[in-house]
Amino acid sequence: MAPVRVTMEVGSDGVAVITICNPPVNALAPAIIDGLKEKYTEAMNRSDVKAVVLIGEGGKFSGGFDINVFSEIHKTGDLSALPDVSVELVVNIIEDAPKPSVAAIQGLALGGGLELAMGCHARVSTPEAQLGLPELSLGVIPGFGGTQRLPRLVGLPKALEIMLQSKSIIAKEGEKYGLIDAIVSPADLLKISRVWALEIAERRKPWISSLRRTDRLGSLSEAREILKAARQHYKRTAPHMPQHQACLDAIEDGVNFGGYSGVLKETKLFKELVLSSTSRGLVHVFFSQRATSKVPTVTDVGLKPRKIKRVAVIGGGLMGSGIATALILSNTPVILKEIDSKFLQKGLKMIQANLEGLVKKGSLTQDKMNKTLSLVKGALDYSEFKDVDMVIEAVIEKVPLKQQIFADIEKFCPPHCILATNTSTIDLNIVGEKTHSQDRIIGAHFFSPAHVMPLLEIVRTNKTSPQVILDLMTVGKAIKKVPVVVGNCTGFAVNRTFFPYTQGAHLLAHLGVDLFRIDRVISNFGMPMGPFQLQDVAGYGVALAVKQIYAEAFRGRTFESQLTELLVKNGRNGKNNGKGYYIYEKGQKPKPDPSVQAVIDESKRLANVMPGGKPITISDQEVLEMIFFPVVNEACRVLEEGVVIRASDLDIASVLGMGFPRYR
Ligand SMILES: C[C@H](O)CC(=O)SCCNC(=O)CCNC(=O)[C@H](O)C(C)(C)COP(=O)(O)OP(=O)(O)OC[C@H]1O[C@@H](n2cnc3c(N)ncnc32)[C@H](O)[C@@H]1OP(=O)(O)O
């Protein structure tokens, strides 16, 4: 690997090209920061240098400050690991230098990378370069002057959108808003940047310090209105995230007292946030997510993923149609198999509806939708399975049915074909009991809706071959999922870890705690919804189907009640029929249904667990602990049994599969 370094080459034209080299993304590690300071100082001192072009090696400008430094600070609590970049390097050495700089951007300029570029006096970029300040997604704010320079270059509304939503834009859009001065081809990037830098030095092009600009900020009253509205919005939508308000504080300081004051405020807030628990959580998620793609004996043994050209999905229900949608959206042709034409048409309609939903949201064009839809073909038998590379079975959770399907597909599919099941609970050894192809059997556990939820839990047995695991991981990434490889057990990693989540909630309800209060406490903690609403959304069929399976697998740590059966008897089926613990009406938020109390009372009477027949008194904190501590205990078992290879895999699976708040 190329060494971490900054180089400088001075051409006969008098331009010093300063190059950042720290593969794979040219992160601004402390050694790079030192190198930049050194080379810039040299460039300023040399009489043969008239101007500077700043560029990144390997087709990428920079992916920002080195996030490993944050991890280090989280371990030690020592902020001295943070180099002084904002004032010393960006303001004093680059922006206020006696010689101008041009940033030559290719590939990406994110976070500190874009902030360095904004400290330069002009930015030339290739068209598709990705530009953004994603620091808030790491629990901090831009710390090299980004909160001040971005609004001064693109105006307040666009700058807020980019920073507060951690949203990147491509250079072409950047040019429209004034962030980029010129778009050029990769071949011309360096040449044009050099000429541009010289023209600034010769005052034939403007020499602009973005920190001193005010023309894009609008009037003071307008700016304050925009900031006030943003504050209110994020108070509501990100109540646990200090970084959004801090970002607005830094911007507001600059609006009120000037860019340099804003830079100082930003530095102060940035340092406070680096130490916050939010940043600890979010940085942990950043590295944990990347660690999931490293699976010992699978990704480190020199295997190459095979090409998966065609996939068959068995079952066109909610899961099967979602999986098929995800596959065709990534240009993989799919055969959707159902048992009769009525079910097949229903499945195909669901796929179409999934795509129409994306068109409505603006993330798919009508034309692309038609092309995508043409990639799915219906089938009522296995005749088309002779040339598929992977089958994903997604039928109801019935053991004999699944066993039969696997015995059939083993006969009809080519011998290399991967045989995957989307079961969420059933042991894979049982699913594949009637086949001879144990090495090709694997779990592809998607989360509903499968074309939206980002997690793909890949379940391997002792016999699944590393090649098959690698192939499914590669397909998972191609369809934009985060694949997490786990071992085989009842419920696998996510459902197994979270089964006590529902159990704890049910136990509390039977001890007399109001279930709507439980849901409130859990959603205030940051889960997308409480356990009772989740049960409504998943439908009671799932709860009833897994009840017995869990009771047998996890004897002694399940709480059994008749509540779900009683709800069904009472004509309730959750969101499916609009009536569960909550009432669901089209276009309205779910409303607690007071009449469900009678059903709960009946279940409480049957369970008879309230001490002395009276409801317990319990604080909100205790409610949280009663629900999450058993989850943590189960997570420890999952880890101890080797179901996951590292604790952080379970963290990622919980965040992406259950919506566990990533900042926690
Ligand atoms: C003071 C400043 O304001 C503070 C900051 O700048 S904070 C940093 C802001 N920048 C970011 O948040 C960008 C983070 N990086 C990314 O979003 C993505 O990595 C990317 C879009 C740059 C590239 O994505 P992709 O090509 O899919 O590669 P990806 O697997 O994510 O990353 C490749 C490797 O680079 C590492 N990496 C990426 N950005 C990094 C960074 N800023 N610091 C350290 N390592 C980084 C990843 O950890 C990964 O390492 P690994 O191979 O050992 O797992």
TrEMBL record:
Keyword Nucleotide-binding on this protein? no
Give GO MF terms, alphabetically. Answer: (3S)-3-hydroxyacyl-CoA dehydrogenase (NAD+) activity; 3-hydroxybutyryl-CoA epimerase activity; delta(3)-delta(2)-enoyl-CoA isomerase activity; enoyl-CoA hydratase activity; NAD+ binding
Keyword entries, A-Z? Fatty acid metabolism, Isomerase, Lipid metabolism, Lyase, Multifunctional enzyme, NAD, Oxidoreductase, Peroxisome
Gene Ontology biological-process annotations? fatty acid beta-oxidation
Q: What are the record's GO terms for cellular component?
A: peroxisome
**UniProt cross-references to Pfam families, sorted A to Z:** 3HCDH (PF00725), 3HCDH_N (PF02737), ECH_1 (PF00378)
Q: Which reaction does this enzyme catalyse, per its entry?
A: a (3E)-enoyl-CoA = a 4-saturated (2E)-enoyl-CoA; a 4-saturated-(3S)-3-hydroxyacyl-CoA = a (3E)-enoyl-CoA + H2O; (3S)-3-hydroxybutanoyl-CoA = (3R)-3-hydroxybutanoyl-CoA; a (3S)-3-hydroxyacyl-CoA = a (2E)-enoyl-CoA + H2O
Q: Which residues form the 3-hydroxyacyl-CoA dehydrogenase NAD binding domain?
A: 311-488
Q: Spell out the subcellular localization from the entry.
A: Peroxisome
Write out the coiled-coil annotation as residue ranges.
Answer: none
Q: Which domain of life is it from?
A: Eukaryota
Record's keyword annotation contains Oxidoreductase: yes
Q: Which InterPro entries match?
A: 3-OHacyl-CoA_DH_CS, 3-OHacyl-CoA_DH_NAD-bd, 3HC_DH_C, 6-PGluconate_DH-like_C_sf, ClpP/crotonase-like_dom_sf, Enoyl-CoA_hyd/isom_CS, Enoyl-CoA_hydra/iso, NAD(P)-bd_dom_sf
Q: Residue ranges of the 3-hydroxyacyl-CoA dehydrogenase C-terminal domain?
A: 491-584
Which pathway is it part of?
Answer: Lipid metabolism; fatty acid beta-oxidation
Leader sequence segment: none
PANTHER family cross-referenced by the UniProt entry: 3-HYDROXYACYL-COA DEHYROGENASE, PEROXISOMAL BIFUNCTIONAL ENZYME
Can you state the subunit structure given in the record?
Answer: Monomer.
Family classification: In the N-terminal section; belongs to the enoyl-CoA hydratase/isomerase family. Belongs to the enoyl-CoA hydratase/isomerase family.
Query: What's the name of the protein?
Result: Peroxisomal fatty acid beta-oxidation multifunctional protein
Which species does this protein come from?
A: Canna indica
